[in-house]
Every structure is written in C-alpha cells, then in structure tokens.
Amino acid sequence: MKNKHIIVGVSGGIAAYKAVEVVSRLRKLGAEVKVVMTENATKFVSPMTFGEISGHPVAVKMFEDVHDWNVEHIALATWADAYVVAPVTANVIGKLASGIADDMLTTQLMATKAPIFLCPAMNTNMYENPITQRNMNTLRELGMNILEADSGHLACGVVGKGRLPEPAKIVEWLSFHMMKNDVLADKTVIVTAGGTQEAIDPVRYIGNRSSGKMGYAIAEQVALAGARTILISAPSSLPVPYGVEFVPVDSARDMEEAVNSRYENCDAVIMAAAVADFRVENMADTKIKKMDKLELTLVKNPDILKGLGANKTHQKLIGFAAETQNVIEYGKSKVLNKNLDMLVANDVSKQNAGFNVDTNEVTFIYPGGQIVQLPLMTKSDVAKRIILALAEL
Ligand code: PMT
C-alpha cells in the first residue's frame, strides 16, 4: 500500500462510521487517501472527520468543492490507483449499474480507470432484493470487485445479511487484490503446513515444533500469484491467509487423505508441513492414568510426498527437507527418492531458520543436481522465491 493513491468513497448508510477506520488503516499502511462522500453520507459522519483522518479536503458536491484548477471529478478519478466505496448503498449500486452519474461519487466512479472495489451494506431485504443482486452481478461482470456483506445484527433491528465487514477485513481484501499478479493464474496449488499431531489418548499427542509460518507464507503468496490455493494445515494458531481454501487436519494420515483426494485435479503441491514419521500404534480410547512408566509402540506413518511422487502425472512437486547436518547431500537424495521437481532444504539447527521463526535460510535443490542457495530472508520472501521457481517449472 506504500504511496498508493486510494480514494475511499462513502455513501449514505449507518456503516459510514466504519469507513473512518478504513481510511485510518490505509494511511497506517503508507497509502495516500482522499475521501469522496455523497450528500447523504454527510448526514451520518461529518466531512470534517474524514478530512482530519485522511489529511485531505473531502469532496462532496460537484460544483462547490473545487480545490485546484483541474476539473475536480476527473482530476481525482485519474489520481486514484484504486477506488473503494464503503459502505456502498443499494442506491449507488443501482446508479452505477445503470450508468447514472448525478453526484461527485458516481461521476468519479464513471470517470476512473482505476480498479473499483465495492463494499455493500444495507438492510437484509434490500441486499437480497433481486434487483440489487442483479445490479451487483452486472457490476461483477463489468470487472468490479464486490466484497460480500457479513451477516449479523443490523442497525434496523433485524438479524441477517447486510453488515459492512470489519475495516480490517476490507483493507485486507483490498490489499490482496491490489497486490495480486497472474504468475500462477488458472492453476490449482495445494500447500501443506504445520506439524501433524499423532494422538496418544484423547488428550495427549506427539507433535513437533512447526508453527505453520513457512507454509502459511507460501499459501499467501500462491494466492497472490492468482492460483486457486488449497491450504491443508495441521493445527496452527496463525490466521488463514486471504483468498485461500482452508482444510484443517490433525494427523499425518488425515493430511494424506486430504492431499490425495485433491491430487488428481491440482497442478502443484508444495509440502512445507512437518509430517510425523511415526504414530502411536494403539491410541488409548480414554485418558491414560498416571503411572511410573509408560511404553508406547510407534509405527511408521505413510510418506505422503513419496506417494505423490510415485503417482505423479502432470503435477509439479516441491518438497521441503528439515535437516540438521549434511543438508545438501541429504536433500539431493530426497529430491530423487521422492521424485520431486524441486526441494527446499533448510538447516533447522541454524539460528533464525527453520521452526517457529519469521525468517529462513534455504537452498533449492533440483533433480539434475542444480543448486540455488539463498541468503537469510523473511519467510514471506522465501515464499515469493518459491512461487517464481514454481512458475518456471
Ligand atoms: O512451520 P514453521 O515453524 O515455519 O517451520 C517450517 C519448517 C521447518 C517445518 C519447514 O521449513 C520444513 O522444513 N518443512 C518440512 C519438514 C519435514 O518434515 O522435513 P522432512 O525432511 O522430514 O520431510 C521431507 C519432505 O517429505 C517434506 O516436504 C515433508 O512434508 C514430507 N513428508 C515427510 C514425512 C512424511 N511422513 N510424509 C511427508 O510427506
């Protein structure tokens, strides 16, 4: 968002107050924000509030708020990198769908070439009205982005769909679309993340130190690269990245089932999960009582990635290797042994790399023996490099 020019349009609904926080959040992300209001919106929040929060005069009327010699509605419309309207009412949606431009907001929306992002908020009946739905579909077909309204208690007293989503969600949605590219457009990519949990009894499990940070960063970048992204994740406390289909799992066998059932129809799998190699042979049905000594028998878990490699048809496979010694040597044998297209090896004994940190230092290893060593960088940057490597593959 840094230095991006964003116009926030505000139309007349009780949710207009939430737009104040949208503007504030965008500015905190480094964007320059200008606000345009309909006259009805000024009945809910004063233009002065938006002026203070945005740091710019607010445009409301067509012929009174001229701030410089440029024709105001055209000047603002061409200044914008993105135009977001929150809340957008049924009235403004209807006008837009019909090509009516009778105030500053709708005139600018007609005049801008910037991508348009609409966040509807209104009474449930108005939202569900076939006319509103038809108008929204028309706008979608014309390439405008529409964020579905949330459900919940509405100001009119009813419970239903029509709430303006929280400002944080609006800003996340906007950032996602503005950062999106098409490096992996039309592809479906499965990403695994986190450490699987192997049950001992109903309350205990064997786990590992994976936080999910690496896999979630990859899923986020895959989605930004325009792919349909399926994140199959062992338990993690991280928020699910925007634009990702989320499949939560617990054990290695759950993960295997989730991956295998989606394998045929995907174009690539990136296995960043730390999958337990063993599980408890006989999980106790009830909580095991305290005792002096407890012996558990562990049996081998399936190797998910190896199975994918053996059944590969058109898919590209990227595996990870968590090593503490001979990283390249072990990595080279894993890439061949599992029939991978690329392996991301990380030395998890290094500080600031591997488990539960925000950075990683990795080496890409290819089946032909080619090696690309990357310096220490954030997991988000590692993820971007993996996406570029996958796109090349
Ligand atoms: O989640 P974070 O805290 O961010 O930590 C990131 C990470 C260290 C977990 C990640 O960078 C990483 O290295 N993931 C792979 C961990 C691992 O299981 O490595 P491995 O060398 O044991 O397995 C090799 C590959 O086979 C991996 O892609 C793994 O997902 C896969 N595998 C392993 C065992 C198994 N039974 N089935 C598998 O599919």
Give a brief rundown of this model.
The protein has 393 residues and is α/β, with parallel strands linked by helices. It has helices at residues 16-28, 47-54, 72-79, 90-98, 104-111, 124-128, 130-141, 167-179, 213-224, 252-263, 304-310, 327-337, 379-392, and strands spanning 5-10, 32-37, 82-88, 116-120, 145-146, 150-153, 159-163, 188-193, 198-199, 205-206, 228-233, 245-248, 268-271, 278-280, 298-300, 316-323, 342-347, 359-360, 362-365, 371-373, 377-378. The strands form 6 sheets. An 8-stranded mixed sheet has the order 12-11-8-13-16-17-19-20, with helices on both faces. A 5-stranded parallel sheet has the order 2-1-3-4-5, sandwiched between helices.
Key phrases:
13 helices; five-stranded parallel sheet; Rossmann fold; binds ligand PMT; eight-stranded mixed sheet; 393 residues; 2 domains; alpha/beta
Could you characterize the architecture of this molecule?
The structure is a single chain. With about 400 residues, this protein is α/β, with parallel strands linked by helices. About 35% of the residues lie in helices and about 25% in strands. The chain has 13 helices and 21 strands. The chain has an eight-stranded mixed beta sheet with strand order 12-11-8-13-16-17-19-20, with helices on both faces. The protein has a five-stranded parallel beta sheet with strand order 2-1-3-4-5, with helices on both faces. Strand 16, helix 12 and strand 17 (about 340-345) form a beta-alpha-beta unit. Helix 9 (about 215-225) packs across helix 13 (about 380-390). The two termini are about 30 Å apart. Bound molecules: ligand PMT. The site of ligand PMT has 27 residues, from helix 9, helix 11 and strand 16. It catalyses: (R)-4'-phosphopantothenate + L-cysteine + CTP = N-[(R)-4-phosphopantothenoyl]-L-cysteine + CMP + diphosphate + H(+); N-[(R)-4-phosphopantothenoyl]-L-cysteine + H(+) = (R)-4'-phosphopantetheine + CO2. Keywords: Decarboxylase, Flavoprotein, FMN, Ligase, Lyase, Magnesium, Metal-binding, Multifunctional enzyme. In the C-terminal section; belongs to the PPC synthetase family. In the N-terminal section; belongs to the HFCD (homo-oligomeric flavin containing Cys decarboxylase) superfamily. InterPro entries: CoaB-like_sf, CoaBC, DNA/pantothenate-metab_flavo_C, Flavin_trans-like, Flavoprotein.
